[in-house]
Specification:
Blueprint: H1 56-59, H2 70-74, H3 86-89, H4 93-108
Length: 119
């Protein structure tokens, strides 16, 4: 019997810059001095103490919510003529309901616009 010798398959040339393959989801090992600098999450800033919102109508009882005063009601409407919520304006629930009704009445009487196109 003649013995046949098979030569081993040649390995493909690999450069030293290639990283070894690892399992999916596995992280590369790092030394303690190889850490990237700490970054803050995007969009989050340090909390600064905000002024507490208060209801202007409760604080100043001389102010009256009137549907015939479009200048005063205009402060509670966006540039697209949407009614601002109380969490933005700071009004209490009782006065927010009155503001909403006054804005709707002013729109009905054409003192306030429904949309920017109705100016």
């Amino acid at each position: 019997m003649s013995e046949t010798t098979t030569s081993p398959q040649p390995k493909p040339a690999t450069s030293t810059a290639e990283a070894p393959r690892r399992a999916a989801g596995a992280r590369p090992e790092r030394s303690s001095n190889d850490r990237p600098p700490q970054r803050r999450p995007a969009g989050r800033r340090e909390r600064t103490p905000r002024r507490r919102k208060f209801c202007k109508f409760c604080a100043d009882t001389s102010l009256d919510i009137d549907h015939k005063d479009p200048d005063m009601l205009g402060r509670f409407v966006t540039d697209r003529f949407k009614i601002l919520p109380s969490r933005v304006t700071g009004t209490c629930a009782k006065h927010q309901r009155r503001i909403t009704n006054a804005i709707k009445r002013a729109r009905q009487l054409a003192l306030l616009a429904y949309t920017p196109l109705h100016k």
